[in-house]
Amino acid sequence: MSSILYDAPGPRTRRRTTLWSILGGLFVLGLLYLAYRQLDSRDQWDPERWQVFTDPPLGQSAADVWRSMLVTGLGATLRAAGVAAAIALALGLLLAVLRMTPAVWIRTPVTVVIEFFRGLPVVLLMFFGVIAIGLPIFWGVVFGLVVYNSAIFAEILRAGIVSLPKGQSEASYSIGLSQRQTLFTVLLPQAVRRMLPSLVSQLVVLLKDTSLGFIVGYAELLNVLRNNTQFFGQRYWFQFFVVGAAIYIAVNFTLSRLAVYLERRGTAKAAGGVAKADQVQIAGTHATGADGAGQLGTPP
ABC transmembrane type-1 domain: which residues (predicted)? Predict the structure, then answer.
């Protein structure tokens, strides 16, 4: 029995795979044990250190500590991510449409803009927004996230459109729809449903990139964790690191589960199927279509 891409492994290959999986698991467990012993030698597992979250020193209450992380820090993170995501999605849709226009004098500069901003570090764009343009810190962070992620969203949407069968466009033109009507009423809804896992995965990347606002002084979650560590003392750095990492993982896991839910819900509606959310990997670089520039064909 074989699959489409490769032959099914035989008994010997399955045994070898199982063996290497066990050895790999033991190696990872060994590394975790060494990390545990190293931290234990520095008393990082001492219950007294973890009381900073239940009975903190210096006249603070547990409510003050958790409020600083969940309300002030996480709230600032979600606020910047939400505003940036809304603007970046709208701008990305506009860039995707402009890049697919038949007019070369429009498509070429838009392509240059997308490729240029897609290759710039997000933190550099944040610095440009705060220092060069003079934006407030919040809007400087949003500016960097929007400029970078709008280019990525544009490529994701364009890839979804050009991946649809050409018969979609031909059928639309045959019933008298214009190119604009074909794009917005036929192609784009299907492309969005098809690329939902990729879009949500990029939203996870956007949310994590808000932590770069720490460098320009934005009071997001990472900045709040640093301030708490400086206030209570460096002896609590590991405890705040663990709790901060758990908060980031919980939020990103929720978004990832949302991607899986949307993928399953949209599978029956999307033409040609939907890429599995668990298999989608967005590195923030390439999300290109099969035909290069991805230009929309003109109606006959």
Answer: 74-259
